[in-house]
Design brief:
There is one protein chain. By secondary structure, this protein is an alpha+beta fold. About 35% of the residues lie in helices and about 15% in strands. It has 19 helices and 19 strands. A seven-stranded antiparallel β-sheet has the order 1-18-17-13-12-9-8. The longest helix is centred in the middle third of the chain and has 21 residues.
C-alpha cells in the first residue's frame, strides 16, 4: 500500500460516491446489479474469477450499450499463487473481409475513419467475430470454482424479471435514437412505442433470458458452433453482412504474454499487444519516474503539462509501432524499457508544449465500454475490460435472441494499403488497460476503465493519484482527468480556469469536455486490516459491493431454552 494511503477524502475536489469494504471479496462494476451478481458468487463459495464473469453476464442485461456476449475485450487475472493470466478476447475480422470492404468518406480528418453509409459502424457489415462469450466461459472453466449454470443465473433472472432503467442508460438510448430506429428489433426493445426508454421504466428482455438459458445448458458452443450462432449468422447474411459460422467456429481466445514493469517500487502487470494500453502505461510511467510528480502537486499546470507531454510521446509511438503482432513486429521490450524512458524524457520541456513525432491520426475506438474489477481474500484478482465498441455496437439486435452485435470493424482503417487496414482474420488494435499492481509480491491494487483511446492515459492518472499523490482509491478514480494525443488538450470541468490559462500560455490548445474516458473502478488491498476496498467513479452507474463475515465459529453448541424439553 502507499505509505500515505487513507480511507478519508482530503483531495482538492469532492468525491461523489462512497467505497465498499469487505474481508471475503469485493466486486466493482459499472452497475449495481452487475456488482450484486458478482457478490452472490462469493456467497456461493466462488472466487474472484467467478464473480467477474457473473458480473459481466449481468452487465450484458443492464448495461447493454456497453458490453455483450457478442463483444470483445481483454482479461487480466492474478491467481492466488501469483500466476498472471492475460486473455485476449478481442474481435477479429471475418475471413471474407478485404482491404476494400468499405468505401472511405474522406482522406482527411475529421471523417478519415468513416465509410460510405457508415457501413463500418452501423449495420451487419460492421460486425466482427466476437470473443467475449468464449473467453468468459474459458476463464470460468480454467480458473473459477463454480460452474457456468450457477454463474449465469443472476443474469437470467434480471433479464426475465426486468430491471429499472437508469438515467445513464436512458440518456444513452436517447443519444442513439436515430441509429437504433433503423433496426426493427432494436427499436422494439429500446424505443417502445417509438420513444426512447425513460429512466425508471422496467425493461424485460425475455428473448435474452432464453439465449442465456441456452448458454447455461450448452456452453459457448451454442453460439460458436450451434443454433444460437446460426440464427445470428443467418440474420447477418440476409441483411448484407459477411460473418459466417466458419468464422465463429474458428475463433480462439488467445493467452497472451503478461508484460511487467515497475514504478516507484510497485510492480505492474498489464496485457501485451495487440492491446496497446499496457505497453503505453509502462512507457508513460517510465517517463514520469524521472520527475518529482508528488512535488509538482495534483491538478497543477506543471503536473498536467508533464502528463500531456508524456501522453503525446506514447501516442506518437502507438501510431508508429503498434498493431497485431502476427502482422507487425512490435518492439515491446524497447518501448517499455527504462533506457528508452530516460531518452525520451529529454524531449519534455517545462517551458512549452512540444510536437512529438510521429503523427497521431484519428481513431475510431469508442469510449462505450465497461470494466469489472474483483478480488478475494485468497489473493485472486480479475481486471476485465469488455466492449461492443460503440454504444449499442452496430445497433442490430438479432430477432429472437435479445443480443446486440458489436461494431468492432470500425476500428480498422477503411483505406486499403494502411498498417491498420481491413484484412481477413486480423485482430483490432485496442487501448484497453486492465491493470494489476503488487508490491513485494503481495497484491496491492487493480483497476481499469472504459474510454477508447483515452483509457490508458486515464489509468495512468489513477495510478499516479494513488502512488504519487497518496489519494484514497475513491479519490483516485473520481479525480478530474485530462487527455491529449497531440491535438487539443481535453480537460474536465473541475480543472480550474487559472490552471487552464497557464496551460494555454505554454502552447496547449485547451478544450473543456464533460468527461475524459468513462466509469473507472478498482479494488485495493489493505494488508494491515486484512480487508479489500472497492470503488467506482461518478462517470457511470458504478457501485461496488463487498462481502464480509463468514461461517459460524467451530464448536458452537445449542441448548434448549430453560424449562423446555
Amino acid at each position: 500500500m502507499p505509505a500515505n494511503w487513507r480511507d478519508t477524502a482530503a483531495a482538492p475536489f469532492q468525491v461523489q460516491k462512497q467505497p465498499a469494504t469487505g474481508s471475503r471479496g469485493v466486486v466493482a462494476a459499472n452497475h449495481p446489479i452487475g456488482s450484486a451478481a458478482g457478490a452472490q458468487m462469493f456467497a456461493l463459495g466462488g472466487n474472484a474469477i467467478d464473480a467477474a464473469v457473473a458480473a459481466l453476464f449481468a452487465l450484458n442485461v443492464v448495461e447493454p450499450q456497453m458490453v455483450g456476449l457478442f463483444g470483445a475485450g481483454w482479461i487480466n487475472v492474478r491467481l492466488a499463487d501469483g500466476t498472471p493470466v492475460i486473455l485476449d478476447t478481442y474481435a477479429s475480422a471475418p475471413a471474407a473481409a478485404t482491404p476494400d470492404l468499405y468505401s472511405p468518406v474522406s482522406d482527411a480528418w475529421p471523417d478519415y475513419m468513416r465509410a460510405v453509409d457508415d457501413a463500418n459502424r452501423t449495420g451487419p457489415l460492421a460486425v466482427g467475430v466476437p470473443g467475449a462469450l468464449k473467453a468468459w466461459c474459458e476463464a470460468l472453466r480454467r480458473w473459477g470454482d463454480l460452474d457456468l449454470n450457477t454463474v449465469i443465473q443472476p443474469a437470467i433472472q434480471v433479464a426475465e424479471n426486468g430491471f429499472r432503467v437508469s438515467r445513464y442508460l436512458a440518456e444513452s438510448v436517447a443519444q442513439n435514437e436515430r441509429h437504433l430506429n433503423r433496426f426493427p428489433e432494436t427499436a422494439r426493445i429500446f424505443l417502445p412505442g417509438g420513444r426512447p426508454l425513460s429512466a425508471g421504466t422496467r425493461l424485460v428482455q425475455s428473448d435474452l433470458a432464453a439465449s442465456l438459458r441456452d448458454i447455461a445448458e450448452g456452453g459457448a458452443d451454442v453460439l460458436y458452433d450451434g443454433p444460437l450462432g446460426k440464427r445470428i449468422v443467418d440474420h447477418v447474411q440476409e441483411t448484407g453482412g459477411i460473418l459466417t459460422m466458419e468464422d465463429l467456429g474458428a475463433y480462439r481466445a488467445v493467452r497472451r504474454r503478461a508484460i511487467r514493469g515497475t514504478y516507484r517500487g510497485y510492480e505492474l502487470v498489464v496485457p501485451s499487444p495487440p492491446c496497446s494500453g499496457g505497453v503505453h502505461i509502462l512507457q508513460i510511467l517510465n517517463l514520469l519516474e524521472g520527475f518529482g510528480i508528488a512535488d509538482l502537486g495534483f491538478g497543477t499546470a506543471d503536473g498536467i503539462h508533464v502528463l500531456a507531454e508524456c501522453f503525446k510521446i506514447a501516442f506518437a509511438d502507438r501510431t508508429q509501432y503498434m498493431g497485431d503482432p502476427e502482422h507487425v513486429d512490435v518492439p515491446v521490450e524497447w518501448l517499455t524499457s527504462k533506457t528508452y524512458g530516460a531518452q525520451r524524457r529529454a524531449d519534455i520541456s517545462f517551458a512549452k508544449a512540444a510536437r512529438m513525432d510521429a503523427g497521431t491520426p484519428p481513431s475510431a475506438e469508442s469510449a462505450c465500454t465497461t470494466h469489472v474489477t474483483t478480488a478475494d481474500a485468497a489473493g485472486n484478482i480479475a481486471s476485465m475490460t469488455q466492449t461492443i465498441n460503440e454504444g449499442f455496437g452496430c445497433k442490430v439486435v438479432v430477432p429472437g435472441t435479445g443480443l446486440l452485435l458489436n461494431n468492432n470493424m470500425a476500428l480498422f482503417d477503411p483505406h486499403p494499403g494502411m498498417a491498420n487496414s481491413v484484412g481477413p482474420n486480423r485482430r483490432m488494435l485496442s487501448s484497453n488497460a486492465p491493470t494489476i499492481v503488487t508490491r513485494g509480491g503481495e497484491p496491492c491494487f487493480a483497476l481499469g476503465t472504459p474510454g477508447g483511446v483515452r483509457i490508458f492515459p486515464a489509468v495512468v492518472q489513477a495510478l499516479v493519484n494513488l502512488i504519487d499523490h497518496g489519494m484514497a482509491l475513491q479519490e483516485a478514480v473520481e479525480a478530474p482527468r485530462v487527455w491529449t494525443q497531440g491535438q487539443e488538450l481535453e480537460v474536465e470541468p473541475a480543472i480550474p480556469a487559472t490552471v487552464r490559462t497557464l496551460l494555454t500560455a505554454r502552447g496547449h490548445a485547451v478544450r473543456e469536455v464533460n468527461t475524459v474516458a468513462g466509469g473507472m473502478n478498482g479494488i485495493i488491498y489493505d494488508q494491515h486490516s486484512g480487508t479489500i476496498l472497492g470503488a467506482a467513479c461518478w462517470r457511470a452507474d458504478g457501485s461496488p459491493v463487498a462481502v464480509a463475515g463468514g461461517p459460524a465459529r467451530r464448536g458452537i453448541r445449542f441448548r434448549p431454552a430453560a424449562g423446555r424439553t
